[in-house]
Amino acid sequence: MAEFEPKIAAFVCTWCTYAGADLAGTSRLQYASNVRVIKLPCTGRIDFHFIIKAFERGADAVLVSGCHPGDCHYTAGNYHARRRWTVFRKLLEFAGIEPDRVTFAWVSAAEGAKWASLVNEVTEKARKLGPFTRYQRLNEIAEGEAER
Amino acid sequence: MIDQLRQRARELLTTGEAACIIGYADASVPGKATPIVITRAEDADRLVFHAACCNNLAAYLTRPEIRKLGTVAMVAKPADVRAAFVLMQENQVRPDDVKFIAVDVTPAGECTLLAQRTREELLDYLVKNVPPAELADDALKDVAALEEQKDGERWHYWQQQFSRCIRCYACRQVCPLCYCSRCVADKNRPQWIETSAHGRGNLAWNITRAFHLAGRCVGCGECERACPAGIPLMKLNRKLAKDVRDSFGGHAAGYAFSGEQLFAGYSPSDPNDFFE
Amino acid sequence: MRVVAPVSRTAFTEFAEIVALDEADFSQVNTRSSIKQFLFPATEPILSYSLEQSNVKLECEEPPEPRKTVIIGSRPCDAASLPILDKLFSWDCEDRFYLNRRSATVVISIACTDCDDCCFCTAIGLGPDSKQGSDLLLVPGESGCYNAEPCTERGAELVKQHEKLFTQSAAPASVCKAVLEKLPKPLNLDRIANWLRGHFYDDFWQAASLKCVGCGCCTFLCPTCHCFDITDEHGRYRDGRRAGLRRKNWDSCQFAQFTLHASGHNPRPDRASRWRQRMMHKFLYYPERFGSRLCTGCGRCVRSCPVQMDIRDQLKAIESAQADDDQHLQA
């Protein structure tokens, strides 16, 4: 039986993390290919609905990453994001979503290696947790494939 | 106490200090109270205040029909004053457009009319005498009990609760802090929150509302009381109030009527330990 | 097949599937939400589709076979909503989703021996032992027995099929007098309709709706309210194709966007016009078109309203306003 390959959605900022991921690529670093990257101008633009929608669309885990505090291309976008995530991650956990399914990180444009190891780490965490069957069950019910 | 309340209402109307009073009247169902808006001094006798006066009347401050009337004097319990203060802080209501007829109910059930009238006096009173009820140790017990469960049990618990949600939005409509003229749940280009009353849509809705109230909810409990399906919404709100308090230096909503709102700002020293 | 009955597992008494009779609680005045959920659920898929480039493949156009359902313990006010909904859902088009479930449902009602502060079935022409909509009506008698009155052929058939469970009764059990004394007097619904017809524009609506917060409690819990929204929900990929579902969901005329047009115009832009719509629909438009009021007096709207809006007070005010008008006309 094939090993479970988690589907991971990554919401990253253009100026730091996306560039860092790009650097990982140009450096020919090999790392897990489970992440689907969604590029946004800034982590400050990331609405928590994106995370919920990623799970609704079948993601097993979500990664959110941007510029280090103090280095935001838009000065303070990541500070706003950080404040929001401080509370939102606790709400998700309270609702019964395993905390390891959502990871937050700061990855700069120079940290290609960090990006690679971060993706590997997030993939392993998701693999250990297994498919997000709880959310998939909600999807099956909503999409008419299962009875309530 | 009720005579003094009515007298104050009469004075506010006759002097023209307020164009209308938002208060409580006895409902048609015995033992219950209902919101009432009066514009004539002679109607002040319809005002009542007792333990069944649970509505958070600050919800009416952002109604266009009420705004049109002019300066409002509202009968306000501490949570309702806090809600009005958050509205002022968020620039939804001009501070001078709201006067208060502040009331409170003691734990013994005695109704009192507060001597404090101005917002400065009331703020002082709240800070000194009325800690946030939603953060009291007793109030947080059930939150703590849920936190101690395994995430699978919590998931199952909330799925059971949300399965009863029929998306009537009573929780949103009675909440004074849910004042958006177009709620995100009502937007469909794109549709971030599915409108269907299935587990997926209900989870998205309830998480959204809870999070949009983080740092703003004043713990009046009206959402939970209004919910026709008996969903324990205050558990979510208390949980977030606790996390906001613990993460942001003891912050509680409604103890200021000016200054920056919690999520409108940031600090370079905000918690950072959960980042890789 | 399933049997649903009122159960009191949480703070509220609600209809739920039971497997043993002792799970049921017939002692409460009524359930929080009505039986309409079994015929017209809060959300229901009506067709599914998948997309491949610009090709749309519709995958399911016939409603699925509904589960045979026996509702036991509904109150006469709830059962009375069914003939009202039957007319609506077979009016300009046959709503097979509703009608299929309807023909797969048997309703066994239990007459009321008590009421609460919010009940008003007698005010709109019904009663605690009304038979409308029920297949079988059980009237509580002495010592825990019920007098069973078949109201439809199906009800009679049911009794015949289970003859052993029934014994002949000497006389029909009469409904408890005590409850009739508590229930309100009948309203003059014609008089109310006349006033509504002549007062579309009236200051009454602004005053009557000022405290309403515009939620959907009254409409969603009402056994006769039937408005719905059609929405498409995209889902995940299925077999490499983007798939989705078209759903029929409860909607409320009290919601701000209920009548919002694609152009941006909203003919009911404020609370007053939306509240007026509710009253008009229930007591003028529906009666004019279908011959019966769109209300069974169950009182759920009054019980559940977060701000204690009371439709009875408004009806009484309208009735007496029209009575005054009528008197003036005669004078």
Fraction of residues in helix of chain A: 40-55%
Give the DSSP E fraction of chain B (strand runs of 2 or more residues).
Answer: 5-15%
**What is the number of helices of chain A?**
5
Total separate domains of chain B: 2
> What is the gyration radius of chain A calculated from CA atoms?
16 Å
Uncertain segments of chain A are none
The amount of beta strand of chain A, in percent, is: 15-25%
Helix content of chain B: 25-40%
Shape of chain B: globular
Most extensive interface: A-B, 44 and 48 residues
Biggest β-sheet of chain B: count, sense, barrel? 5 strands, mixed
Radius of gyration of chain B: 20 Å
Write down the overall geometry of chain A: globular
- The counted number of beta strands of chain A is 4
SSE order of chain A: EHEHEHEHH
Describe it.
The complex is a heterotrimer of chains A (148), B (276) and C (331). With 148 residues, chain A is of the alpha/beta class. Chain A has one domain (8-137): 3-Layer(aba) Sandwich (Rossmann fold). Chain A contains 5 helices and 4 strands. Chain A has helices spanning 14-26, 48-56, 77-94, 112-129, 133-142; strands at 8-13, 35-40, 61-66, 102-106. The longest helix of chain A is centred in the middle third of the chain and has 18 residues, at 77-94. Chain B is an alpha/beta fold. Chain B has 2 domains: 2-130, no CATH class; 134-257, no CATH class. Helices cover 37% and strands 11% of the residues of chain B. Chain B has helices spanning 2-14, 64-67, 78-89, 119-129, 137-148, 151-162, 170-174, 199-212, 222-226, 233-247, and strands spanning 20-26, 33-38, 72-76, 98-105, 111-113. In chain B, strand 3 (72-76), helix 3 and strand 4 form a beta-alpha-beta unit. Chain C is of the alpha/beta class. Chain C has one domain (2-330). Chain C contains 11 helices and 10 strands. Chain C has helices at 76-79, 81-89, 96-103, 153-161, 177-182, 189-198, 204-209, 217-221, 271-290, 300-304, 311-330, and strands at residues 2-7, 14-18, 43-52, 55-58, 69-74, 105-110, 136-140, 146-150, 228-238, 241-250. The model of chain C has no long low-confidence stretch (mean pLDDT 93). Chains in contact: A-B, A-C, B-C. At the A-B interface, helix 2, helix 3, strand 4 and helix 5 of A face helix 6, helix 8 and helix 10 of B.
